[in-house]
Amino acid sequence: MKYETATAEKSTVKVTMKFDAEEWTAANDRAYRENRHKYAVNGFRKGKAPKYILEMYYGKGLFYEAALNLLFQDHYGEILEKEHENFTAVGDPEVALGEDFSEENIVLVATVPVKPDVTLGAYKGIKIPKYEYNVTDADVDAELDRIRSRFSKSEEVSDRPAQLNDTVTIDFVGKADGKEFEGGTAYGYDLKLGSGQFIPGFEEKVVGMTVGETKDLDVVFPEDYQAENLKGKPAVFTVTLHKITEQKLPEWNQELLDKLKAESLEEYTAKVRARLEETAKMRSRDATENAILNEIAKTSSAEIPDAMIDMEEEMSLRRLEQNLMNQGIGLNDYLNYLGTTREEYKKNFEEDAKLSVLKQLIVGKIIETEGIAATEEEIDARIAEQAASIGKEAAGYKETLDPRQLEYIENDIKVVKLFDFLMANNEMVKPEE
What we know:
By secondary structure, the chain is of the alpha+beta class. It has helices at residues 21-35, 51-58, 64-82, 137-149, 202-206, 254-259, 265-297, 306-326, 331-338, 342-346, 350-370, 376-389, 394-399, 403-424, and strands at 2-8, 12-19, 94-97, 106-113, 118-119, 127-129, 153-157, 167-176, 179-192, 214-220, 234-248, 301-302, 427-429.
């Protein structure tokens, strides 16, 4: 097999693979051996007919596609490995036959999406917001209430109207222009008021309803709503409220403290505050790092292949799916309610996906440009830190790590050093409120 590569449009590389007659014959024979069990011919047991009989019966090119797949599978990975210093594949290739394909001219052309180069804008000497999040007493109280809520009990109430944070069981029928629309009707639906599951105005207007009450709620779909036929349209939801359930929080007493393995409320409050402050510190760092990349991205550019954008969109959709699952909602149900499809909804992530990929490329490019590296000592120190966190010895723990885990640790150290470098080489200013 001989091959050649050529740079193509939109960050792709064309890999042209040429095979000689001997390779083609061997691939066809192998394709026959691996696929003959699929075909039957009168006079032969299934899978036992000779190759030439099968080709006479089903056609000369019976095993061509399987043979071509074998040739590609056997050599594509090897080519990527040989060319790893020249390009990095970032998605599945599109494979086609070469022009004038024949048994004497066996040519496959793979168009491979590759990691693009990035043209860096200014990344030193610029003004960048530095975020600092502080923990207040109100934050601590809210977290303590959230923790208490894990031990709360649901109680049905009927002596008062629905209020925020109640879970209500409702029937609803939605109409726009006087007609019911897809995804706008449900019966026995449990909705936590204030959760933001429904379009603006819906949950707020359920507040105040009583058990057994039926009410028409006038709402307007947002202008950026996913379903094209409902964007900005007024609608009426006829809602019947069947049940109101509230969560009863337990008192802070010794029984609850025992469940939390705490000696006193004061001790437990101090632990909660320390944890929130650590989270606030991480949040501050994350927000600042994101601000740095956003600023650099304003003057940077890259020709990003569709495969990278699509992967980022898919990741965003999976995160949404996980968030919905945590609320007890299936993604398909959510999309049906919005009147859209998976592929259509993914388009909402397109611009964010492009920016996210660009920022990833910027990180890699600056690390390369500035020669930022992780030393063996730094890697060993990180491994020792991880080992200590799970009560293991560093040396033994390191032996359990595979090359990918070690590479992840090395890259993480580089990224931390990168942002330390960027914060030191730019003017970090307090962000506007």
